[in-house]
Amino acid sequence: MSTGVSPPTDSATLRTRSKASKEDEPASQVDGPREEEQPKQPRTWAESWRLDMANVDWDTLYMSLGLKFLLFRSYRSTDFEVHRNWLAITHSLPISKWYYDTTSEWTLDYPPFFAYFEKLLSIPASLIDPKIVDLDNLGYDALPAVLYQRTTVVVTELLLGFVLLRFIRGSVDPSLQRLISASIYMHPGFLIVDHMHFQYNGFLFGILLWSILMARNGNKLASGFLFAVLLNFKHIFMYLAPAYFIYLLRSFCLSPSGELLPMHFLSLANTVILVFTVSLGPFFLMGQIPQLLSRLFPFTRGLNHAYWAPNAWAMVTFADRVLLKVVQYFNIASVAINEAGVVSASRGLVGDTIFAVLPNVKPIHTFIITGIFQAIFLVKLWRIPTYKSFVTALTLCGYTSYMFGWHVHEKAILLVLIPLSLLAAENHAFFRTYMIISITGIFSLFPLLFTPAESVVKVVYLMGWSIFVLIPLNHRTYEFPASRPFVVIDILEKVYLTGFVLLQVLFASWAVIPQAIEYWTYIHTDPLKRPPKQDTPVASTGMEFLPLMMTSVYCAVGLIWGFLRLSVLYLRQSQEVAN
Amino acid sequence: MQPGQQSNIPFIPGQVPHRTRTPLLRHRTSSLASISSEQSEIVSPIPRRHQLLQASESRHWLPSPSVSPVSTRGASPSISHPATSPRSHRLPKRTRVNSVIQQDGSRTVRFPSPSHLAKRVHPPDEEKKQSDEGGMARRWVRWMHKQGLKQWVLPNAILISTLLKWCVGLGTYSGHNTPPMFGDYEAQRHWMELTIHLPPRQWYTYDLEYWGLDYPPLTAYVSWICGIVGSWIDPTWFALEQSRGIETSSSKIFMRSTVLFFDLIYVIALVMFTRVWQGGRSSRTQHSALMSLLFQPALLLIDFGHFQYNSVMLGFTLLAVNFFACGRDLLGAVCFTLSLGFKQMSLYYAPAIGSYLIAKCIYLGPVEGRHLFIRLALVTSATFALLFLPFLPPFAPPSTILHPITRIFPFARGLFEDKVANFWCATNVVFKWKIWFPRGALVKVSTGLTALGFLPSVVGLIYSGYKRLLTTPGDNVQPDDVKKAVSAPPPFLPLLPYALLSSSMSFFLFSFQVHEKTILVPLLPLTLLLSGSSGDSETFELAALVNNVAVFSMWPLLKRDGLATQYIALLLLWNRLIGYNPLRRTGSLLRYLAMAIYTACVALHVIELIIPPPTRLPDIYPVLNVLISTPVFVLTWLWSIKRGIEVSWASGGLGSSHSHHQAPPLKHQPSNDSTASSSSTTRKFSSVEAGKAKDWQWSDGQKNGAAAADGVGLGEGRQGEVFRRSVGYKQGTGILRTASVGGVR
Known about the structure:
- Chain A has 579 residues and is mainly α.
- Chain A has a domain of 64 residues.
- Chain A contains 23 helices and no strands.
- In chain A, helix 4 runs antiparallel to helix 7, helix 11 runs antiparallel to helix 12 and helix 18 packs antiparallel against helix 19.
- The longest helix of chain A is centred in the last third of the chain and has 38 residues.
- By secondary structure, chain B is mainly α.
- Helix content of chain B is 64%, strand content 0%.
- Chain B is built from 36 helices and no strands.
- The interface between A and B is large, with 53 and 54 residues.
- Chain A: It comes from Cristinia sonorae.
């Protein structure tokens, strides 16, 4: 890579490292500008697990814990009930019925490790409040249940914090890495998705980052093992699997010259098989694998989610809507209009997305496009299987899947944001990419929280986070734009990011507009004689999805631009190294 | 700071003799930034301050480093002896080894020049720890400054505090979902409904059974404004009678945002406070002081969780105090009247504020003092008249004015309502006051006790004013100087916070009809004192303890409101923010007391969680809570009186008679003064030497001199006593001198 920084090696690393990676990281001996900052070598197993927390790290922990405690009583989505139901399923049913139970509509659709995990969590739950694990107690959200489940999210997320701490210990520039680690631990994405919306992403990304950390430290077997474990926790991480496959194959199973290292290959293969056996074995023995797979991969959903995840398909869908209006307005007879698509357009809600004007997209198309893009990046990774290259390729793999995948959920953007954070301070180009993708990606998560009270939290928190993370990183990496096109791009990007303010203002005022209209309509009527109001926002004006669509499209612009930026950065960088 | 660095070059005291640790050697191993910051602590020039603020030195009850020209700190190569460094035995454990060495050295080695002070550097280990010291607020401010985000600190601190306040508001509130009466939230909402639909004459008489208005008119006006704005958005929120108990999510958000909006008054007052009262200190110190005030857990929990508008009242009072410190007494009086007009609870401050103003009138002498008094009286009564205008004769029948008055002072209610950690409720365990005595007698007794409680502070203030009289017969004070003194803070200004604390605490402890939430009133001056104190001073210890115990004392209320997680979160955050670790052992008596109290608190929480109260004693847990909290509050009250006496002594109020006016003390006690300043410098030096250099440290010594010593007091024992005799008094006279020179010249 152009900056030539790669993680420092220590003796423990060198022992486990293959010849391949040694050659791939020539910079490792050069890069320590400050010798005293080389990490201490962990001598014993216990020492390597020691917490090396500086006061600042404790501060971050306290701040995040305090904030998350305060959010215990905030809005929570149906995912809360989903997970409560899983607690109940795993606690009150034998393992053979886990994937067959349909008491609730929220059936278990995560891989077995997550089910085991829920089983583990259900044991204290049953002690605290047996009603939590009562299978028929649907929609139970009394205070003990809320407190308990929220606490499990916070506690399991400590794994992420631990792994992030370990990232600091061996890094080239600990103070920089500390900032990045803190930025991940306090990531608005986790705050929105985990601590308000309710999921366990913090824990899962903890495993992912642990696996990446192992790759950085040269322990590739452990990296593969952890990723296999992660896959059995949540299968959405399959988005990242191709990068792992290529990286481990190239840098661990093959020697630099391309010869197969049978011992390495076998140990890796056995590790992965072992993990999958532990996970799927019981269900294989019970013959439930097809049922399990049908739960994990329900191919009955449409191209887009209810709120279009801001990816390429959101743009295509938007284009279709625009074209439909154009065709209808000018009454162009030569264009065939799919009637189902017209209905779909006006409805804009859940279900299959059918295009009115453009040809419809089938799952196979999305797979092919995703595959092609991933292949491009994987070829580069194959040629340069270094750690930094791996992380970039990993990010791009997730990014590609997010961009072109079938029925992508907006939460999947975390798969891009978190690994990308590790690269945020590589150089200014990376930083700008990171900034655009982060702000856009986090903003695209905003519709998850639609209640006004939580909207304030998400907006203010994003503002604070951006100031604390982006400004210092910008100071560290800043480079003046090299030429006139770059100046133009620079300005355009700034304009684009400023646009989010307007978008948010529009989005916020959208809730008030119907009320204001109503107020001015009834202004001369006695307040008490007006029709009574519901607490829910006024619906069915036909335009209530407009802000959502605008958010989706606007974010899609930024995310596509970020995708292009990152791809070009990665592909160009590999050329430079190759030269 | 990087941990790698920390661990790699260990400092082993035994291997390197301390005398050979030349500055050069230590220079090499330390980072440049920390050197420069330390230099600034030792030798940098005193920040220039506005002439107005410079008028009186003694206002630095909150330590400010305006050292008098006589005591150039570097030029005092004096020895340090144990008596002048009473706090060295209270150093944190990790610096102890080093401090012993330094202590040793300072006894034998005489540092010849200030350059030694400047170049004194610690081994990197120590340095790292120093820069890590202090609370989270301090570290954060330092980090922001290093990142070049200095100008972002203030807006960000406010932004984060706003976020936290809003997050507290996500939870439930007083009376959430409990018909038919609901709670304080419904009361506030009901007043908005009431005021927009009824003429002012009926505000204090309408359906008193259902949350009749019982706060002074400014609350009513604020409710009226909120009601008007709210009705623009959605009239159903405040429809008369129809809207009772309305709890739609949008109306909740509106109500919460009104609290947040009017909280701005308090935030502005806090920012002004750090600028005015701590104007001579570094911006880092000001910022971290602001943070410790902004995140005060008790206020956040009550205003944004429980739902009230206390910050408006406290904000106005604080503004008044700030204006007093600027010498703008009239503006201050208006602000305090507004505070009184918002909630009668600020009456708790009235003795202190009133006697402060009277003392200032006395201090200014018969002519200017009388003028000031008349102007103050006019302004105050005019403000009151404006506030009560709708209830006064031209607009309403004369009897109308009685309605608000009887509503505001509810002597018809009992001695205390819920369990509240004051004298009456605590002693009620043994003496059944309500049963044994008629209400009339109790009213009298409680009033008398309250008056007795705030008497020392009132007398102290007025006596100080009298003693510091500007113009005595035969004095040659120019009339111009007196005129200047009118708009300058008087020398006894440092007494004001202590007087506020002591008066409000005596009201809380002894007066009639006190609510547990009212502890917020005494907490304000105490937290102000905390924000200006260094992390190892007695003030800090006590104020942190009382803040925590105050939150604990409101636990029954918070539990009822469903604010348990907020309670834990805010306590955790705030203590971390100010850098207070209840478990750290420092060896002072106060700390042992604090640990005992914390143990009791935690034990009570655990027992309450596990064992339901026995049916025979359903109130056992609140009563135990009261019994744990009350002693702390009584202690604080006594402490405030003691500190009041010390401060007035140090500032010369209780000193010897008028003699200093006839003969300028400059001639009198030059030797005394230099000793005083030099010994205070030594103190400062030795404590800094001992590895505790901080931005606020250098002014710490000053404070110790000026305000008769943090090192003195509860549990400080003989050393403190010695110190007070040897330094406090002399320094006190020094301050006296500078003050009278500054004020009279």
